[in-house]
Structure to design on (368 residues):
C-alpha cells in the first residue's frame, strides 16, 4: 500500500507505510509576483518541465498497482483552487491510474462547490474514469447531478470516519466533574463557500454570538472546553479569547478549558471529556457523534446539514451565516433536556453507518 498525500514524510513515519507527494513543490520567488512576463517565462522554463516530471512520477508510483482509491473527504471542490490538491491534481492521478490499468474507486467522497468551468470539467472527467463511485451524502450526489454529471449507477454511503476502529475511540471514564462540560468547536470561516467574495462580517458575527453563548453557559453553571478541528484554526482560539477580554468576560482557566490539539487522538480524547458539543468544523461534529455526544452543528456547508439530518438531529443545526445567540441558547436547552433520549438515537444511527461501511468495504474488496 502506498499513500498519495500531502506531507508524505509525516504519513510514512506515523503509519509505517510508503507515501509519496500528491503534488510537487511549487517554487514562486517573490520577485515573480506582479511581473506577467517573468511568470510566463517561469511557466515555460520551469512549470511545464516540472509538471511533466510529476506525471512521470505518478506513472512510476501506480505502475503495477491493483487499484487507486480516493477515500472520503471533500476533494471534489475548487474552493482552494484548481491546483495543489484541487480538481486538476485529482484528474491527473485518475487518468494515470487508468493508463496504468488500475481500478479507480471514489469512496464516500464529498462534492461541491465548484466555481469554475475548468473545476467542473476536471471533476466530472475524473469521476467518469472511475470503476466505482460513492458519495458520503445525498447532497453531494444531487450537486453532481445539477452540474450535469450522470450518477444513476452511483451509491451513497456514510462518511468513512464512522468506521474508525472502536479501539481508537476513547470511552467516558465515568468520572463526572462538578459541572457539565460543553465542547465549543471553533473554526475560521469567511462566508458562504459558494460566494466568490466572502464577508469578514460573517466571521465577526460568528465569534460575537459565540461569546454571548459562552457567557450564558458560564452563568448557568456549565464549563466550556474550546476545540479545534485543524491546526489552521489555532489562531481562531486566540482571537476568540481576545474577544472574551474585550467583552469583559473573565477568562477563568478552570471554567474555560483550552488545551492544545494537534492530532485526531487529541481531538477524540478532548471530545470524550465533554457532555454536549456545539461545533462548526465537520469532523468535530462527526467525531462527537461517534462518541455518542449530543451535538449542535453550526452549519457552513451542505455536508453539515446532511450529516445532522441522517443522524436524526436536523433541529439542532444552526446556520453560520445567520448566527443568533438567543436561538442557539434555545436549541441548547432543548438538546440538554432531551440528551438521554437523543443518545439512544445517535448510537443507533452510528451503528447503522458502521454496518453500511462494512457493506461497502466487502463490495470494494470482494476480489481479494
Amino acid at each position: 500500500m502506498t499513500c498519495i498525500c500531502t506531507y508524505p514524510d509525516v504519513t510514512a513515519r506515523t503509519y509505517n507505510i510508503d507515501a509519496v507527494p500528491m503534488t510537487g513543490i511549487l517554487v514562486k520567488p517573490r520577485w515573480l509576483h506582479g511581473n506577467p512576463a517573468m511568470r510566463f517565462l517561469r511557466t515555460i522554463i520551469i512549470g511545464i518541465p516540472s509538471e511533466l516530471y510529476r506525471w512521470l512520477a505518478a506513472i512510476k508510483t501506480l505502475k503495477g498497482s491493483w487499484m487507486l482509491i480516493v477515500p472520503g473527504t471533500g476533494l471534489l471542490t475548487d474552493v482552494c483552487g484548481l491546483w495543489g490538491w484541487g480538481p486538476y491534481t485529482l484528474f491527473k492521478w485518475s487518468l494515470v491510474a487508468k493508463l496504468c490499468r488500475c481500478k479507480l474507486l471514489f469512496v464516500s467522497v464529498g462534492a461541491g462547490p465548484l466555481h469554475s468551468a475548468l473545476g467542473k470539467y476536471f471533476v466530472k472527467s475524473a469521476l467518469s474514469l472511475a470503476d466505482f463511485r460513492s458519495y458520503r451524502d445525498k447532497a453531494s450526489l444531487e450537486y453532481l447531478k445539477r452540474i450535469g454529471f450522470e450518477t444513476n449507477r452511483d451509491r451513497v454511503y456514510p462518511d468513512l470516519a464512522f468506521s474508525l476502529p472502536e479501539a481508537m475511540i476513547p470511552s467516558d471514564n465515568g468520572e463526572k466533574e462538578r459541572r457539565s462540560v460543553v465542547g465549543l468547536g471553533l473554526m475560521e470561516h469567511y462566508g458562504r463557500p459558494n460566494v466568490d467574495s466572502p464577508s469578514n462580517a460573517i466571521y465577526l458575527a460568528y465569534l460575537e454570538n459565540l461569546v454571548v453563548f459562552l457567557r450564558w453557559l458560564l452563568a448557568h453553571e456549565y464549563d466550556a472546553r474550546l476545540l479545534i478541528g485543524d491546526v489552521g484554526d489555532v489562531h481562531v482560539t486566540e482571537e476568540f479569547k481576545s474577544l472574551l477580554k474585550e467583552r469583559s468576560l473573565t477568562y477563568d482557566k478552570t471554567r474555560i478549558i483550552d488545551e492544545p490539539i494537534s492530532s485526531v487522538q487529541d481531538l477524540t480524547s478532548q471530545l470524550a471529556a465533554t457532555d454536549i458539543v456545539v461545533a462548526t468544523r465537520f469532523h468535530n461534529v462527526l467525531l462527537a457523534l461517534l462518541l455518542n455526544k449530543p451535538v449542535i452543528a453550526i452549519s457552513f456547508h451542505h455536508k453539515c446539514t446532511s450529516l445532522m439530518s441522517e443522524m436524526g438531529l436536523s433541529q439542532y443545526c444552526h446556520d453560520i451565516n445567520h448566527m443568533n445567540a438567543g436561538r442557539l441558547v434555545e436549541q441548547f436547552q432543548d438538546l440538554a433536556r432531551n440528551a438521554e433520549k437523543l443518545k439512544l438515537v445517535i448510537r443507533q444511527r452510528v451503528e447503522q453507518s458502521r454496518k453500511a461501511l462494512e457493506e461497502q468495504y466487502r463490495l470494494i474488496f470482494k476480489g481479494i
Notes: Residues 167-353 form a domain with the Rossmann fold fold (CATH 3.40.50.2000). DSSP finds twelve helices and twelve strands in the chain. The first helix runs from residue 8 to 15.
